[in-house]
Structure formats: structure tokens, C-alpha cells
Amino acid sequence: MSETNLAKGREMRRTLLGDAYVDKMAATTYKDPIMQKFVDVASETVFGTLWTRPGLDLKSRTLVTVIADASTGREAELAIHLRMARRQGWTEEELTEALLHILGYVGAPLVRDALLVATKVFADLRAEG
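Now predict its structure.
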């Protein structure tokens, strides 16, 4: 495991999700030793390598990720990545429109499910302030 990429990845996760969310996940989902291994590998490889590459800004990367999640029906990941996208400056309206745009390419059922996830995430974010 590359300690440099792991450290970069942990920092990137905090940038994308915020300290409060990362700390909450560490105390719940990633408290389990097996899930701790998962988050360490994901932090090193995905966040420490892919998210820190040059060529795209973080705002663009979050939109690509949201669309990939919605297109493949990854609802749990979509909820996390919509939070990231909002933190990077995408509005609810822009994200909704991006999801509606892919309806003609990936199908109505996937987009409907994605919009249901988005509706909940946006409400949660508004409630959190």
C-alpha cells in the first residue's frame, strides 16, 4: 500500500465529502474491520490516484461520477457522489437536468431511481444546512 497515495486519498475524501460526513462514516459503516480495509484501498486507489490526476477539475469529476453511478444503477454510491457534487458547486437543478438528460441513453427506470435518490439526498442536505 502506498502511504503517499493513502494520505492523498484520505485528504481528497475529506475535501469531497467534508469532515463531518467522513467522521460519521468512520464511526459507522467503516468502523467494521473489513469495511476499514475497503475504505483504505478505495482511498489509496480511487481517491489517492484517480481523483488527484490532472486534466479535470473536481467539479467535472463529480459530475462524471454521478452520471456513471446513475447509468449503472449504483444507488448507494450515487447518494454519496451527489453529496460530493453539491459540495463542488453543482446545483440541484443542474444535477437534476444532467440526470434527465441521460434518460434517452440509459433508460427511464435507471433515471427514475436516480432521481428518487437525488430527491432524498437534496432534502437531507437542506435539512443539514
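The two ends are 37 Å apart (CA to CA).
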